Hints:
By secondary structure, this protein is mostly helical. 67% of the residues lie in helices and 0% in strands. It has one domain (3-275).
Amino acid sequence: MESEEARALAFKCHRVLDPLHSAIYFAPQADERLATTGLRPGRMTYFASRSAPMGAVTAGTVAATFYNFNPTLVAKHIPRAWTLATPAEVLDARLEAADTVLRRLLGDAVSSTELAEAAELAREASDACTPEGRPLYAAHAGLDWPSEPHLVLWHAVTLLREYRGDGHIAALVVNGVGGLEALITHTATGKGFLPAAAKATRGWSDEEWDEACTRLRADGVLDAEGGLTEQGRALRERVEDQTNAAACAPWRHLGAEKAARLHELGRGLSRAAVAAGAFPGSGVFAAPRG
């Protein structure tokens, strides 16, 4: 498989598979189940459930691996979360939550042959992921595989997501883009959060945001209105291209034909999840088209 084809597949497959993982972060049922462990609902359940595979890690570790969250926000919830629930308890609750959420969103498709096929293909793709330099992926890869096909699919998609995410952070670092700057330039593309939502969910104040925008304007990345300059667009394109290049291994391993089939199956399942209300009012996710 040529590099350009592999990069394109890495992006396309990520786009259609990611909603199957991300739905858990928007589902009230997941928050409720995680809260039964003793965690506080909301941000604590998010930070703890996603970082639990790494163990009872510090706030600094979570901020570093999650990248675009304000470390001050993270420190309000981690490590306190580990005094309320152990990582093992959180992981058990997270898998149960994934089961509940997927059954609600996908209905009878949970037991379909198409989902089982998607699970098998996604797991095969994840076999090519390697842990070096990818801490969140490596931690998740150390977990036991679930047995039910819909949870196999969820776990495989989680591995592919965190593998790609770790590579994305590496691309940001090598291009000198910090966590807040990554968030600002991403919102400036018009393809993600609006600035108000980005600040609110990631814990950045107006002052911190404005100071970072001033730095980005001085560096020629943003224009006076806060949009990306030509230099800024080139920066974002370079980061995304490097991210896709770093995420190619699973799709080269799977091969073009199987990757195309997984893309087809994943698109159908994600569309069903979105249609069932996976992301109510988020303004971020839409039914995958590509």
